[in-house]
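Issue 218. Parser rejects a valid record. Input:
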Amino acid sequence: MSGSDERPADAGSLRHGLPELIAERRAKALRLRQTDAEAFPYAFAGTEPIAAILDAYEHLAAGEETEDSHRVAGRVLAKRGAGKAAFLDLVDRTGKIQLHARVDVLGSEALQRLTSLDVGDLIGVDGAALRSRKGEISLRVDAFTVLAKALRPPPDKHGGLSDVQTRYRRRELDLMASEDARKLFADRARIISAVRGYLDTEGFLEVETPVLQPLYGGALARPFTTHHNELDRDLYLRIATELYLKRLLVGGLERVYELGKDFRNEGVSSKHNPEFTMVEFYEAYADYSDEAVRLEELVRRAARAVDYAGELDLEGRWRRVTFVESIAEATGIDLSSARDPDALRAEVVARGLEIATEGASWPQMADDLLSKFVEPTLQQPTFVLDYPVELSPFAREHRSRAGLVERWEAFAGGIEIANAFSELVDPDVQRERFEAQQRLASAGEEAQPYDELFLAALEQGMPPAGGVGLGIDRLVMLLTGRDSIREVVLFPAMRD
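Output the parser choked on:
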């Protein structure tokens, strides 16, 4: 189902079209306002999570009742029964519980008001815990309050939302219809909490840097541009937090991280959303090898937070392979002997590999080989190490291998999840790298803008450091078994 054609689970949906159903529900809401002074209160304090009640009464035998009173609130998911008793299913974020309403407890008028409610309405209930004769933990309804009237019927409780576009555009309906969707985003919150908890306990300081920046940087990506009227200047939504965070290391904040939104004005795919969540963390006196060990532990903690039980081995040490080795394994091309565009182009053509070669630079072709032929094969967690300097303008030169830098990218499930460097701290070398990037920009390639303020910061003296950028959305994809970033972002970017 999709759009305005969504239908409820109740029998009325079989008799009426949507306009008639909405009119009927509006009439009920009006009657409630006129006849029930307690309906639609401003608050309903003192509620308990349904899951906590279910857990507390696991010991009850079938048919056993208590006088233990509890207060819950949620949405009516289903209702059945008539006459002197009725049963309703009530759902909140944590679970579903059966409500048992009886005429000898509520009285006939209140029972009739309760049973006249529609599926989708929100109610608050006071009642005592029991286990029904059929073995279901329930609440006896001693009193109830109508909290909100659903003027539109909810999605079908069995079919849910079958249209993927509707699920993404109307996430509230997806959450309403699907316990799995609610669990997914609860798991996302647990993953983010675990990431923060790990970094906090390791002595990292959470900071906030500008989202609107006078000069974008820290990645090779096209930014979103906006204009500040009062300052009369163009500003950019940040594409990364890297350069500001490294300036904080210069200032003496030796371990810092930021977890927040970045924005890149680029394509939308199963792995890309223009607005995405990243955590970047930097620490003085560490290098990229230290950061690899740290990332392993951080992901391990996040996986434990959601009781990960998938096929990825996140408890052991991740595989390490160099950039050159990974491409040789996947394509047979030895990049160390094909170090100019013509030589690499000839190798690609000779092997019939389908990447763009016409007019492409050596870095473009090398990066395309990695993305197309290596990345999809890296299912188990893997670090690809030691990149060519042309692909890494902020990484420090390799201590023993000329032409390479100390950089790794982390892959799992066939996608990249993180990127890290031994950070470049020499301002003169960084200036040379900026100038090389400018030459690429003049040739029409994506390049890092020249950032004089960042160079000035480096000239104050930056300690040796390691830094990591980890994609939170992709980490959530891995740990929850989703294959599209749109599944794990509450409101993904969509075409009109």
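Fixed in the parser; the record now loads. The longest helix spans residues 179-201.
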